[in-house]
Every structure is written in structure tokens, then in C-alpha cells.
Amino acid sequence: MTTESAQELRNRQAKFTAELHGDDIGSKSGLKALLSKNKAAQEEAVAKYLRHWDGKTDTDAEQRRLEDYNEGTHSYYNVVTDFYEYGWGSSFHFSRFYPGESFTASVARHEHFLAYKAGIQAGDLVLDVGCGVGGPAREIARFTGANIVGLNNNDYQIAKAKYYANKVGLADQLDFVKGDFMNMHFEPETFDKVYAIEATCHAPKLEGVYGEIYKVLKPGGVFAVYEWVMTDKYDETNPEHRQIAYEIELGDGIPKMFPAEVARKALTSVGFEVTYDQDLADNDDAVPWYYPLTGEWKYVQTLADLATFFRTSYIGRKFTTTMVTVMEKVGIAPKGSRDVTLALEEAAVGLVAGGKAKLFTPMMLFVAKKPEKE
Ligand SMILES: CC(C)=CCC[C@@H](C)[C@H]1CC[C@H]2C3=C(CC[C@]12C)[C@@]1(C)CC[C@H](O)C[C@@H]1CC3
Ligand SMILES: C[S@@+](CC[C@H](N)C(=O)[O-])C[C@H]1O[C@@H](n2cnc3c(N)ncnc32)[C@H](O)[C@@H]1O
């Protein structure tokens, strides 16, 4: 059997993206984009994503998911990006909420805080690892005046990120490039700062992605990350705990959730000095980070958030699943769309359960420094 080279994989993924999403990427988003997909390609993308998710959590099943991390995540984001944009917006991450604070203000504040902790300055060259459709990069570019390169292995998201950057007049400050964060193509010591928001959890091994980040950072450079990890309360041998982690993995396209300790050790093992280490979810916030997925109206902070909250709540999600099921049955929505909403439902359930029990956090903040040269 011949193995595919990295270049062949890139070409195949790019070709598939063109087939699946067409050439008018950007102008359509959310459910409108979903309805304009190539139906056969969408069916294939969903099958590709779901092929490794058979309920098994034994070592062999995990190994298969870890080995297929690139295609697995690529397929996952091919099929969920429209739902994310429809339900959440263009920053694909969680955030803390202060009483009275709107959803969009909270998302932006979370991004500003990371930029502040990384010490990003005007004129810095910054890498955004796993940049999504560029929501955080646009906000951090405006907030700091830095130049940002977004790295992503999903062609559809890159095309969208470029489209949005042009639309808001930030094309001079932002660039978005295709690449696997486990094998970066940048020259060593290129970037002043690197950040990653809820993306490196897709890595099959954290030393791999952190090692690549270390390599492309300049000596004295800083890496700041919001990492998705299981907390110290998590016990892998407890079936209820493992079920929650499995729901998070399946619904969020993650080959394997790692404990916080594994992330901490991985950072130091590749050479970083960890200067800040804090689980931002481990506090007494009156409004929990997972509130939009709970369906508890008492947490909604502003009237402007009602539409978002409806879409993210249990009832809103059921409404979307029913609507998509009907559209799929009558042939308007591509086959497999319903399966995507069901996988996202598992994500929501697992994330809330993990968040409530404090077994999981999406905001383990590490700030790490690459030592100066001797
Ligand atoms: C996958 C990783 C590492 C991060 C993404 C975090 C969040 C932005 C997503 C996690 C679960 C997602 C769901 C939705 C939006 C984006 C997330 C919150 C929906 C609300 C989108 C609309 C669907 O109908 C229901 C989804 C539930 C899960
Ligand atoms: C949850 S999204 C977060 C996106 C962005 N950081 C944000 O907050 O909006 C995770 C991102 O990581 C990217 N990603 C996952 N695996 C990757 C890999 N191996 N190489 C590059 N990017 C990857 C996905 O395509 C997606 O854009």
C-alpha cells in the first residue's frame, strides 16, 4: 500500500473543498451555506468524519482516531463550520461572562485577555494556530495593531477567513494559510508571539504541536494558549467520566482529550518556561462559561443575546435538528446533515456535564516563554 505524501493530502483536501463548498465561499454562511453544498460531497464528508466514532473507547479505537487526526478534523470542520457560524458567530470558542455583559463583548474580552497575556504589541508578527474563520485574529489585529498569520488545515475556513478580512478592510494586517500545526512550514524563529484558542486539543500529541510552535517562535518569544483539557478531578477509569470525555471528543472532533498535567509537561518538555498557568473556569463566576448550552434563561444577560441563546439552548437545538431532518428528507439539505446536528448535540451535552462537574475546562490558560539565546 502506498502512503499519501503531505503535498498529495493537501491537494486532495483542496480539491474536495472546491467540490463540497463550490467557489462562492464567504458570501453565504450558516444554514444558507449548508443548503448550497454539493450533496454527494457532503454525504462523503459526514461519513468520513463519523467513521471512527463507533462508541468505542478502547486503545485500538483511540489509536485509529489519533492516527487519522488530520483527515478527521478536516472532515469535522467541513461539516460543522456552517452550524457554528449559524449558532455561535465567527469566533469558535467559549468565554467567561460578567453579569450584564453581552455574548459578543464577552467573546471579545476573552480574546483581548489572551493578547494581553501574550504581550502582543503593534508591529509584532504573530501566529494564530488553528485560526478558524478568523474571528479572533480580526479582533486581536484591531486591538493590538499586530500583523497576524492564521494557520489552519481546513481550506473552507481559510477561504472564509480571507473573505471576512477583505470585507472589513484588514487584509493588510492579516494572512491565512493552509497547514498542519503538527508539521509547520514556516522558517524557524519567524514569529514574535504565537497564540492558540481552543485548537491545539485537536492534536494527536501535544508535544508535537507545542514543539512546532517552539521552533517557529523567536528566542524570547511568548506563546499563550486557551487549552481544552480534563481537570485533575477527571478519572479516566471512571465510566461516567470517560463517557463525558467521549461525548466531548465525538461532538467536537477531538481524537483524544488529555489531562491538564499532560499539557503542562508537554510545554516544558519541548523547552518552554511556563510563566502563567490558570484554569479560568475554576472560579465562582455568577454566569458559567457553558451557560449558552444549558437552556437556562435566567443566565441571559442582554436582550440582544436572545436570538443566540435560542439557537444554542436545548430547545433551539432540537428545533434546528427537526428543521434539518425535514429538509434532508425532502432533499433540500444534503444527506448526513441530521447526523451532524446529532453529533453537535452530544458535544453540547458532554460540555455542559463536564463543565458543571468541573471535570473539563475549555480555558486552561498557559503562557509560556521561549528562552533567550545564551
Ligand atoms: C471544537 C472546539 C475545540 C471548540 C469549539 C467550541 C464551541 C464554539 C462549539 C462547541 C460545541 C458547539 C455547538 C454549537 C456552536 C459551537 C459550539 C458551542 C451549536 C450551538 C451550533 C448550532 C447547532 O444547532 C447546535 C450546536 C451545539 C454545539
Ligand atoms: C474550535 S476551532 C477554533 C478556531 C479559532 N481559534 C477560534 O477561536 O475561532 C479549532 C480550529 O483548529 C483548526 N485545526 C484543527 N486541527 C488542525 C491542524 N492539524 N492543523 C491546523 N489547524 C487545525 C481547525 O480547522 C479549526 O479552525
TrEMBL record:
Record-linked PANTHER family: HYPOTHETICAL LOC100005854 (PTHR44068:SF1), ZGC:194242 (PTHR44068)
InterPro entries per record: Erg6_SMT_methyltransf (IPR050447), Methyltransf_11 (IPR013216), MeTrfase_SMT (IPR030384), SAM-dependent_MTases_sf (IPR029063), Sterol_MeTrfase_C (IPR013705)
Residue ranges of every copy of the SAM-dependent methyltransferase Erg6/SMT-type domain listed in the record: 76-371
Signal peptide (residue range): none
One GO MF term attached to the UniProt entry: identical protein binding
Name of protein: Sterol 24-C-methyltransferase
UniProt xrefs under PROSITE patterns: SAM_MT_ERG6_SMT (PS51685)
GO cellular component, one term: endoplasmic reticulum
Organism: Lachancea dasiensis
Major enzyme class: transferase
Keywords: Lipid biosynthesis, Lipid metabolism, Methyltransferase, S-adenosyl-L-methionine, Steroid biosynthesis, Steroid metabolism, Sterol biosynthesis, Sterol metabolism, Transferase
This protein's pathway: Steroid metabolism; ergosterol biosynthesis; ergosterol from zymosterol: step 1/5
Keyword Transferase tagged: yes
GO BP annotations listed: ergosterol biosynthetic process; methylation
E.C. code: 2.1.1.41
Family, as annotated: Belongs to the class I-like SAM-binding methyltransferase superfamily. Erg6/SMT family.
Catalytic activity: zymosterol + S-adenosyl-L-methionine = fecosterol + S-adenosyl-L-homocysteine + H(+)
Domain of life: Eukaryota
